[in-house]
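Worked example 3 (structure in, sequence out).
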């Protein structure tokens, strides 16, 4: 029975290590090159076939630029101060991981509030592409931090519980 507990603890520690190494900034959404379903050459051909359809390439490029600028700024400026990550950590550590999963689910599913985003350039608040990129990246950061704290507290709780029960 004791060897089973030790094996379970080792397995959980390995899973936590894998989770932490996979949630790093190795491959961010801003680093992935997305293939557009319709290229601008095909769009230009469609424009000659149907003159009612107009594609504005410069506007699309500008929107894409602002979206990626928003994700980059969120990566640098958003720190998830009021995300509930500490409360989730202590709830999972002092209570049980089963008790801590409830606030983790609720907190990770809610988007950060505007006053907590820490946007440095107020002039970009009116740009919808920039705000979408910033909010999407801030939500991703919040989810990573919340679930990282939950896993860290759960692994610590399980290790302490196994040590005390041995």
């Amino acid at each position: 029975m004791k060897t089973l507990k030790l094996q379970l603890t080792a397995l959980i520690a390995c899973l936590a290590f894998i989770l932490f190494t996979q949630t790093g900034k190795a491959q961010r959404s801003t680093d992935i090159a997305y293939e557009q379903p319709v290229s601008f050459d095909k769009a230009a051909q469609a424009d000659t076939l149907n003159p009612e359809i107009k594609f504005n390439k410069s506007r699309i490029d500008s929107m894409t630029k602002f979206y990626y600028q928003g994700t980059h700024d969120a990566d640098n400026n958003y720190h998830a101060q009021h995300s509930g990550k500490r409360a989730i950590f202590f709830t999972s550590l002092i209570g049980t991981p089963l008790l801590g999963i409830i606030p983790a689910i609720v907190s990770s599913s809610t988007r950060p509030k505007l006053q907590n985003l820490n946007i440095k350039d107020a002039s970009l608040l009116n740009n919808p592409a920039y705000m979408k990129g910033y909010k999407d990246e801030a939500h991703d950061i919040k989810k990573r931090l919340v679930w990282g704290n939950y896993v860290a507290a759960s692994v610590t709780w399980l290790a302490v519980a196994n040590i005390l029960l041995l």
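Notes: Confidence is low (pLDDT under 50) at residues 21-47, 49-53. Helices lie at 2-22, 40-49, 57-77, 85-94, 97-109, 128-165.
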